[in-house]
DNA sequence: CCTTGCCCTGACGCCGACGTCAAGGCTTAC
DNA sequence: GTAAGCCTTGACGTCGGCGTCAGGGCAAGG
């Protein structure tokens, strides 16, 4: 099949496919006219790439999976290199989530304080010092 | 004080300050020599900006807080516009966290399946179909 | 006098994963 | 014959928040 059809069947764009090819991730054979030619196995590779991308993997991180499939393994994650990527990504996600949760809690706390201060505007009283204290993110 | 000192006292760089100024966020008076001049109130504004940035706010999102302070309010979040930003950010963070958690769980599930499949290589058996199903992120 | 250290403006670099436009070619359908 | 619709390569645009030159100025200290 040609690039347009492959893109459609994988739910992506021709631009993305050419980009993957430029990165050496999904090379294509060429017909006489110079047009790219793909087959069903390419569709499998592409779907693997897309599935991983959708879960937040960078393109480079999908490479082991693609090569694993291309090597004839039943699944992209049948190879140790793929498992390693899974584990790194898992740790990365956990870290990210924790960071976001901490940020979320700080914002929630500030919001509560600020709302209270606004409600207590008329009665007057002490000045609750705001300023989110921490750093990072 | 001059730009270098302000940057140091707020734990940032002169480049960042010039950038904020270019965005109209933290304008500066100028001395005869054309050098930027700041005072303690600028330091407060800058610290507000930094605190918010550190929790994941975009520059534009800090603007209401800065203008609130500049308007003479005791805290950057003493104004309704700031509270609105807090709330939007809170919702945004919640959404993001949920997305990441979902992704994390998918990856964890895949990893488990793949590890099991690898362990059961010799005994042979059915082919557990992998491929993370969903979309998005 | 010269170095050091601060300041200035302007402008390109970066990162990722493409979107989008430009300019053109081939094939198929009418 | 020609318009439609596919394909080709090349190259610049996007988004945020600066980093990092490049090129130059001004002032104080040795």
Automatic annotation (TrEMBL), chains A, B:
Keyword entries, A-Z: Coiled coil, DNA-binding, Transcription, Transcription regulation
Domain HTH merR-type residue range list: 1-68
Gene3D superfamilies: 1.10.1660.10
Domain of life, per lineage: Bacteria
Coiled-coil positions: 83-117
UniProt keyword Nucleotide-binding present: no
CDD domains for this protein: HTH_MerR-like_sg3
Xref: SUPFAM superfamilies: Putative DNA-binding domain
SMART domains associated with the record: HTH_MERR (SM00422)
InterPro entries named in the record: DNA-bd_dom_put_sf, MerR-type_HTH_dom, MerR_fam
Record protein name field: MerR family transcriptional regulator
């Amino acid at each position: 099949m040609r690039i347009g059809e492959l893109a459609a069947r994988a739910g992506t764009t021709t631009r993305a496919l050419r980009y993957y090819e430029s990165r050496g991730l999904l090379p294509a054979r060429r017909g006489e006219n110079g047009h790219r030619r793909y087959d069903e196995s390419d569709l499998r590779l592409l779907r693997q790439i897309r599935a991983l991308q959708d879960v937040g993997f960078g393109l480079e991180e999908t490479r082991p999976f693609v090569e694993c499939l291309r090597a004839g393994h039943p699944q992209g994650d049948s190879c140790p290199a793929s498992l390693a990527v899974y584990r790194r990504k898992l740790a990365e996600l956990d870290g990210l989530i924790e960071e976001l949760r901490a940020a979320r809690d700080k914002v929630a706390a500030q919001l509560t304080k600020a709302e209270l201060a606004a409600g207590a505007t008329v009665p007057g009283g002490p000045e609750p010092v705001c300023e989110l204290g921490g750093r990072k993110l």
